[in-house]
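JOB MANIFEST
job_type = single_chain_structure
chain_count = 1
residues = 280
[input]
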Amino acid sequence: MVIDSHLHVWSDDPRRYPWADDGPAQAGSVELLLATMERHGVDKACLVQSIHYLFDNRYAADCLARYPGRFSAIAVMDRNAPDAVERLERLVTEDGFEGLRMHLSRAGDPAEWAAPSQDPIWRKAEELGACLLSFGPAEMQPAVEPIIARHPEVTVILDHLGGAPFDEEPPFPRLGNVLALARYPNVYVKFTPQAARAAGPYPFADQHSVYERIYDAFGPQRLMWGTDFPHIFADIGYGKGLALFRRHLPFLTEDDKRWLFAETAKSIWKFGADRPPPAR
């Protein structure tokens, strides 16, 4: 089995699913995703709510309902809403979402995500078995460490290598921010292609040492592969995004790849199993 742990989808019908901004510049429908997955032998995927819809999670929820068992999904929610805890419960128990994404760079002060006012959301996440995704540059990741430490039973996943840089000089302080979070067993990391930040051509040999240092710190059982569909089409293409980790990172063993491509994601997300069907 192969699971794509990180991608976005949006409808080609903005009248039914209106944008929260100017909308995306490329196609990204669930139908395109499914055709791409079929072409490359990918079995399941995690839909991460598109920022183009902001807090309107209806399209992702409808995708879950239309294709039961095929997807997990992560919502985006107004964490400061008076009924935020109740909203999270509805997203999980009624719509089928499996967690929330934190946009650290959209928070003003990223430390706001770790404020005591957020603890009720994390307690509800623990109760529901929901996860939190941390999305932002490596220099912002320490801001959420206090709330990670306060809630060791909540799974936290660092998107896009935790924003680790590839152009740092020793002693690598920003990369160190990511590696420091390995001390918490509930923290996981997504390995996604970073073509836009590569200094050389595919397969981006200049980046391999950063992937390896994260691998050494977290271990293969806390890593998962993702593509960032559909953005990957503009960079290297979906197939190369798969081959980069399947063929070109020499430190990964075959058993490591089993965790990277499927087992880690399966250990976190239920893909609809043991949950009531979304109420759509």
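[summary]
Residues 276-280 have pLDDT under 50 and may be disordered.
The chain has one domain: 3-268.
exit_status = 0
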